[in-house]
Amino acid sequence: MTFMVFSACLAQNKPSVPTSPALINESYDYIGTQFDDSDAISSGQMLGNYEKMAKTDTLASRFSGLVTEVCMAKGCWMKLKLVNGKESMVKFKDYGFFVPQELVGKEVVVNGLAYVEEMSVGDQRHFARDAGKSEEEVAAIIMVEKKYAFEADGVLIKK
C-alpha cells in the first residue's frame, strides 16, 4: 500500500482526473461517488470509532470533518480534523479522483473505509514534503506513528 501512495503522488504522466466538483444538491458539491449525507457521523464520533479499532480492522463509515491539509503535489490526499488534536489521513479509492487544494478550511463529508495504520518514518516524511513542510520539519520525523486513516470513494463539499 505504501508503494501505491508514493507512485500515485509522484506519477506525472498519468492522465489527470477532473477535480472540479459537480452539483449534487443545494447544500453540497461532490467529487467521486455520489452519496447521501443523512447518516454521516461527526468527527468526534469518528474518533471514538477509531480509538476502538485494532490495526487490522476496517469500518465502513461516513463522517464530516474540517479539511486541514491537502497534498500540494496534486490533491491525492487530505487530512480531516477530528477532535483533541487528532486527525484522519484521507486517501482516495484507487486514486480515481483528487481534490482541489482550495479545500483547506472547508467542511466535507467522506464516504468509505476507516482503518488504523502504523505509518513508517519514510511515509511520514513523504507526506510532510507533499504538504510543503520545511526540510527541518521533515528531518524531525524520526518515529513510526499510529495514524487514523480513511479510504474515500466519495467526498461531499459543503457550500
TrEMBL record:
It comes from the Bacteria. It holds the Pfam family DUF4920. InterPro entries: DUF4920. This is Branched-chain amino acid aminotransferase. The lineage of its organism: Bacteria, Pseudomonadati, Bacteroidota, Flavobacteriia, Flavobacteriales.
